[in-house]
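Objective 1.3, modelling of assemblies. Example input:
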Amino acid sequence: MPLQFVKEYPNGPALVRDRIQKLPFISKHPKVLATSFDIERLGKPHAVYDLRPEDLASGKLLADSVHPRGQRYLVHSEGEPAASAEVIWIRGKTAQYVHINIGRFVGATGHALRYLEAHEQVKFGSFEARLLRCRPLYLMAIWLKSDTGEQNDLIYPLNGGAPAPFLPEQLYPVADFQGNIQIIVQTRQPAP
Amino acid sequence: MENTPDANEKRKPMAGKRKPAERRAGKSSSNRRNFLKNAGIAAAGAFMAKPASALTISPNLAAQWLELVTLGDDSGIIYSDGSGGDSGGGGNGGGGSGSNTTSDCLCNEAWYGWGYHLYAEAEEQYQTNWCGLGVGMGIVDYYYYLYGNCYDAYWISMGQCALYKFMMIDIASDYCCQFAFRDPNIPSSCNDSQGPGIGPVIARTAHDNGGVDGQPGIDSIVSQIDQTQPIAIRVLWINTNPPVYHALMISGYYCAGDGTGFIDISDPWNGDDPGVEYCNFQQSYGATWLNTFFTGPSRNTSYPC
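Predicted structure (tokens):
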């Protein structure tokens, strides 16, 4: 079954298109000025979840250890992902923000989704593709949320977003993922 | 404490662990000249004059402007949010004092419609806890391109791993330089979460130029960028226990027609974030702004080439 994606916010595409169109006006970044973003073919967004590693390490379910952050679109240029546009909703406020990134995880996300779409383990299941992020641990992963219960979820750390002992671009069952997070949390020292 | 590398340090190999991007352009004088040429530094009058209402600036400063864009209100950009009250505030006990008011996170009227981006970017942090080194080396790279200072050349030749060695009192060899980019097998001694912060790194490389706690008013950002000086900041990721910090570089700004300020952020971990709303930095970035480090050309002008 093809990967599933979150139902997008009704005004999500409009917000993203608006921000991308204005981007060359609000940033003089050379890469922004040199890129022609294809705003007509945004595709489906994936939900973004920020992981609270201490909660997961303490034994909570993955679903209870994350905070929904928003939805993220890959914006293409000449057929390749060139930027990510994250629509951020702030609880209790009406304000919505679009955060643009043109860094390494844009291409890595596109690559991962293409790879996972064709993966044997994924093709014969039913998964929603989400972005699972833990910036304090420098973790960035695709979270394949199974329709058949969390024990069947799979986590796929992106290239450059896999802190030890994770290996990038490997599929981890949620139990293994939880075990590795426990290792990281237990060995992590408080910063000065 | 500032330690000037001695001759022995200068001869130590860097173990070839810097990735090609970090060695970009070979730092040759011809490349530097090309950079300056491309950046318009050498071409007096390459900037566009500001409108009559704008601030008065010196010709020397103006000549260094790499890029100015006169969009004014024609850009049609109107952003309604300007509350700004959520930025700073020292969340999670981080100690920041950067509470913004509506006025100081909005641009001065003289800058409406103006933007400027420096050709400065953080290097990708070679290991997961080397964010300060990525930003610090990005600043060294930038000033070397501008001025060709030999002390900057020294640090560029050494790279992030050598800078890590010099910053950590218990690492006395090139041992940490042998590990691959974001090597999952790197020992914690070479990827210490209490490793070099951005402030000490900037001081160690002689680019420190003052700073403030918390998120300053955007006029400070505009002023520094207009002086072709990128800014380093230290942030605290929200909802982290124990607290986890990160370093970022600000390389550009834009002031919209309604005063909304935007900044270009260069992140040594996940790359560049162009056009981040200054008043809503915390919500947009998911981090509290703790410290601001201004930078300047190397203070060490006598280091031998």
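Residues 1-102 of chain B have pLDDT under 50 and may be disordered.
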